[in-house]
Amino acid sequence: MSGKVFVIGVGMTKFEKPGSRESFDYPDMALEAGTKALEDAGVGYDRIQQAYAGYCYGDSCAGHRAVYGLGLTGVPVFNVNSNCSTGSSALFLAAQAIRGGMAECTLALGFEKMQTGSLASTYEDREQPMMRHMLAMAELREIAFPPAPWMFGAAGLEHNERYGSTSEHFAKIAEKNHRHSVNNPYAQFQDEYTLQDVKDAKMVYAEADLTRLMCSPTSDGSGAAILASERFVEDNGLGDQAVEIVGQSLVTDLPSTFEDKSLISLVGAPMSKEAAGRVYEQAGLTPDDVDVIELHDCFAPNELLTYEALGLAAEGEGHKLVDDNDTTYGGRWVVNPSGGLISKGHPLGATGLAQCAELTWQLRGTADKRQVQSAALKSGVALQHNIGLGGSVVVTAYRPANR
Questions:
Q1: Confidence category of residue 402, pLDDT binned at 50, 70, 90
Q2: N or C: which end of the chain has fewer CB within 10 A?
Q3: pLDDT tens column, 30-79
Q4: 87 φ/ψ angles, rounded to the nearest 5 degrees
Q5: Is 346 a catalytic residue?
Q6: Residue 378 and residue 374: Cα distance in Å, rounded?
């Protein structure tokens, strides 16, 4: 067995404003996304040997209930919960089972049924998982609420103060991603905004000039991917549609997260840099080899920080990519052709698998009006970045199997 892992089928629901779609409970979402992925792969659920189901807001064994709509075959079902990196963590585990020879065909499924408004904790009678990070950040920047936009906005402010970027760069990133989403039928928002519209939107974190249109919304939705071994792909004649995972790394918080005394480090930049470096080494690639990227733009400042963590720009120079239009169509890379989390939406458990779906379509050349032409070539390379504070990051590199 080679240890190679391939994506052979993907599927997702349209991401929706919470509660806007009638009778759209998590089992329904999972059934829709999972069925699409199985149909795309051309296999039945009875071929799945392990299932990894990711979600953040739900009771124990919600993952079991989610996959039971696809079939009752007795296979192991694992529930995954890792904040915003939940979907890609499920993907990592599903790939690891194949890579380690424990399965030939696995399912990674992510879903979320969210409440409207800002994210809130579920339990108030115990230590919050993010408390250590937040207290460390509060020592560096006065705390503000809601916490999530404050954390990433404050990290953006640190970049402004250290390196000369401005809130205008964050607004330009948001404008780009909203513009990209116009051509994505799965996106929660498909509206194009001017730069001034973005800047004039409702203020969320005033100190960083962070407006609502620079922030990802809460969303309902699901995504799924079917993964397979090289032998499974060959035996079932799936080479023409298969996309190989040529590098993948999951990294959790490092000593530098807290030792750097940096807001940028506290929102995960060192994790992202470490994971990206491992993936480039595994795949024998450099950032210059990449054509299309889906990265975790939960808030516009994090997209800029991630440019540097992924090696697209040197430390302190991410904003130069924005000035040079290097992360949109016609630039060096197309980043978040789906619209990213900011415009596509962010149902936490589903986000990483929606990124996988988008990049699979890009490498197959089936992304319609969103298509990045260089990604559809034989040499096409796609990169995925999904981060969850508290914390972990998953970076994955993909290439077409038979082209």
A1: confident
A2: N
A3: 999 999 999 999 999 999 999 999 999 999 999 999 999 999 999 999 99
A4: -60, -45
A5: yes
A6: 9
Please pick, among 56, 84, 105, 298, the residue that the annotation labels catalytic.
84
Q: How far apart are CA 227 and CA 396, in angstroms?
A: 14
Cis bond before residue 146 (omega within 30° of 0): yes
Backbone angles phi, psi at 304, to 5 degrees: -65, -45
Catalytic residue at 133?
no
- Strands 382-388 and 292-294, how do they pair? parallel
- Tell me which H or E stretch contains 203: strand 203-205
| The pLDDT of residue 119 | 61
Most distant CA atoms of the chain, gap in Å:
59
Q: Which residues are paired to 245 by β-bridges?
A: 5, 398
Q: Residue 151 above 60 pLDDT?
A: yes
Catalytic residue among 133, 159, 296, 346: 346
Backbone φ, ψ for residue 226 (5° rounding):
-105, 125
**How confident is the model at residue 403, as a pLDDT?**
66
d(CA 283, CA 292): 16
Q: Please give the model's pTM, rounded to 2 decimal places.
A: 0.97
Q: How far apart are CA 171 and CA 75, in angstroms?
A: 46
Q: What is the DSSP letter of 84?
A: B
- CA distances in angstroms from 396 to 13, 42, 267, 283, 399, listed in the order given: 22, 24, 19, 10, 10
